Amino acid sequence: MIITTHAVVGAAVTNLLKFNPPLALGTALASHFLLDILPHYDYQLESLSKTSDSSNLKLDYRLWFKDIRKLGLDFSSAFILVLFFWPPPTSSYLVYLGAGLAILPDGLHFLDHLMNWRITNIFTSFHQFFHTSWRLNSPIWGLFWQILIVLTVLIFN
Ligand SMILES: [Zn+2]
Questions:
Q1: Quick one: which of 24, 48, 99, 131 could link to 11 by a disulfide (CB 3.0–4.6 Å)?
Q2: For position 121, what pLDDT does the model report?
Q3: Residues near 78 by beta carbon (within 8 Å), at least 6 away in sequence
Q4: Domain of residue 12, residue span
């Protein structure tokens, strides 16, 4: 799933369960793995997928620039949606923590690609265990379903 979907679901779940912060934050983190079970679309980070041997990560600046654009757009939309629906003075800081925890597994996965540490390898195996192998290849349909998930969550929040 894209970062925006994870962040909005994480924020919504945390907001719903904010009366019990440990439960709220635990559920926000768990929401990442539950969403990843569903068949979904993921955009590829070409700078990583084209240099699959992470110990030989070549710096192709054109690919990195493309990836930074994709990630920037995804992070920006996550940031804007979370701040728009849970504005700072009225919303609990927990909501932002929940949104952050809901995207953390993808952040650690990314770190694993870059660093290939033993601890991040273990985490990546755990992440991949939950991650469906049924990927939606069409960005249009793939994003449509994720927009539907985000809208459903926002309507019922
Ligand atoms: Zn994931």
A1: 99
A2: 93
A3: 3, 4, 6, 7, 8, 99, 103
A4: 3-45+56-156
Count of the separate structural domains present in the chain: 1
- Span from the CA of 73 to the centroid of ligand 1 (angstroms): 17
Position 101 in a domain:
yes
Q: What is the mean pLDDT of the chain?
A: 88
- Ligand 1: centre distance to CA 2 (Å): 8
Domain assignment of residue 39, yes or no: yes
- With respect to residue 63, please indicate whether it lies within any of the assigned structural domains: yes
Round to whole Å and give the CA distance between 4 and 70.
Answer: 12
CA of 86 to the centre of ligand 1 (A): 23
Residues of the chain with pLDDT under 50: none
Dihedral sign (CA 40, 45, 48, 51): positive
pTM: 0.86
CA of 42 to the centre of ligand 1 (A): 9
- Measure 122 CA to ligand 1 centroid, in angstroms: 14
Report if residue 8 sits inside a domain. Answer: yes
Write out the residues surrounding ion ligand 1, Cβ under 5 A.
Answer: 36, 105-106
**DSSP 8-state secondary structure symbol assigned to residue 44:** -
